[in-house]
Design brief:
Elements lengths: L5 H10 L16 H10 L11 E6 L11 E3 L3 E2 L2 E3 L4 E4 L2 E11 L2 E10 L6 E8 L6 E8 L13 E9 L5 E11 L2 E8 L3 E2 L8 E8 L2 E6 L2 E6 L12 E8 L11 E12 L2 E4 L8 E4 L3 E3 L10 E4 L5 E4 L7 E9 L10 E7 L2 E7 L7 E10 L5 E6 L6 E3 L1 E6 L1
Parallel strand pairs: 4-7
Antiparallel strand pairs: 1-18, 2-7, 3-4, 5-6, 6-7, 6-18, 7-17, 8-14, 8-18, 9-10, 9-17, 10-11, 11-12, 11-13, 14-15, 15-16, 19-30, 20-23, 21-22, 22-29, 23-28, 24-27, 24-30, 25-26, 25-28
């Protein structure tokens, strides 16, 4: 685990309390009326500020897990094997059964779900409670993968909304880790350190992650607990799945408290800003005409490629899918080549037929986001940004963004 930051130490000092001596739940999964009453008493949070549109979520109200939305965690790690059979839904919540049973060479089994949809910037939230009894690690986190391993080849960004070890049910941590893939650590790590929240996390609490280009903010019950200044120049900001999981780790679980369960009331994702890239999952609205080739220039997020087109009239276009009407400031990411950049590339902003143009000098100045102004936009795909080569140099296509104002 990463070392505690000064902010984490201050949080810990401010909230240090003895462990709360509360009675354990009467059953691994409570009866539906009791569960509903407990959840209703828990804080309701939601994203900070305005302009958010919910795009993904699951209220876990169905009789079983929606396998169109979720994969099951199936790896064998630490002290448990993870089994799909351990994940059920009842009483309006998803439950991960924690058991003492022999499976795949382990004496205990846990589980979890991983979203099939991969997402990036936005506000993620769940309401959850951990089990009673030592030996289990429950988490709400973001990372690429399908649940068959926590070390997939495509692993780049990991953002941990909360990681709680049940041996200390008032303590948690929030983290950001960079990975090279397949379990190889990259150079980026931020962490709150494990601190005392002053809350009994065996009861229902709401956890939020506000992930943006400037970093990740972590909330409990609507209160900001930790900020990680994780920027795209430090490491790749890739698309990630949502993980809701619980596994046995550390000392062997207290078998006298089993079977038990970790439970999640819902998961929700809201989006406010929209990025369109020239590659990967964010290239859904990207297209070109003419000849474009890979460039050696650095893109807006680490390891993000840039393309270049040199012939006059070669054009790259980005068209976002805005999920809500509103006022947005639009940016294009400028690349700079002092010898080969296009000094007179044309940028065209088309807002539902209202067209404005400007010249982008890619031969001088610094790379970075260039504002194209703020104005109201409709929901949908009626807006676009195009970059056209003048023929006096090579225009470079990277990304655009629509930032809600």
């Amino acid at each position: 685990m990463p070392r505690a930051t000064p902010l984490a130490a201050a949080l810990a000092a401010a909230t240090a309390l003895p462990l709360l001596a509360l009675s354990p739940p009467a059953a691994a999964v409570p009866a539906a009326p009791a569960a509903a009453a407990e959840r209703a008493a828990a804080p309701v949070a939601g994203p900070p500020g305005t302009g958010w549109t919910q795009f993904f979520g699951d209220e876990f109200d169905a009789a079983g897990v929606d396998t169109a939305k979720w994969n099951f965690r199936t790896d064998v790690k630490a002290n448990s094997a993870q089994r799909p059979q351990n994940v059920t839904q009842s009483g309006g919540a998803l439950h991960i059964a924690l058991k003492k049973e022999d499976h795949a060479g382990k004496q205990f089994t846990g589980g979890g779900v991983i979203s099939k949809k991969h997402l990036r910037y936005g506000y993620y939230e769940t309401r959850a409670r951990i089990n009673d009894g030592a030996g289990w690690h429950t988490a709400f986190w973001l990372q690429a993968g399908d649940g068959s391993t926590t070390f997939p080849a495509e692993q780049r960004t990991e953002i941990d909304g909360f990681e709680t070890d049940s041996v200390n049910p008032t303590r948690t941590s929030h983290n950001v880790h960079g990975w090279v893939g397949s379990g190889v650590h990259g150079p980026v790590t931020y962490g709150s350190g494990t601190y005392d929240t002053g809350l009994d996390l065996r009861q229902w609490h709401t956890y939020g992650i506000d992930w943006s280009e400037s970093g990740a903010k972590f909330f409990i019950d609507g209160a900001l607990k930790y900020t990680a200044p994780y920027t795209p120049g430090q490491w790749m900001h890739d698309y990630t799945a949502v993980w809701l999981t619980s596994i046995a780790t550390g000392a062997l679980p207290d078998a006298g408290k089993l079977p038990s369960a970790a439970s999640f009331d819902y998961v929700r994702y809201w989006q406010r800003d929209y990025y369109v890239d020239n590659d990967g999952a964010a290239a859904y609205g990207y297209s070109t005409t003419g000849t474009w080739q890979p460039s050696a220039l650095t893109g807006w997020t680490k390891d993000s490629p840039v393309s270049y087109g040199c012939a006059a009239g070669a054009e790259a276009t980005w068209r976002p899918r805005l999920r809500a009407a509103g006022s947005y400031e639009v940016f294009i990411r400028k690349s700079v080549s002092a010898t080969g950049g296009d000094p007179a590339a044309k940028v065209t902003l088309n807002n539902a037929g209202a067209v404005t143009t400007r010249t982008l000098d890619e031969r001088s100045g610094s790379p970075g986001w260039v504002s194209l102004g703020t104005q109201p936009y409709q929901a949908g795909e009626s807006a676009s940004v195009s970059l056209t080569a003048s023929g006096t140099g090579c225009a470079h296509a990277d990304a655009v963004k629509f930032v809600r104002r």
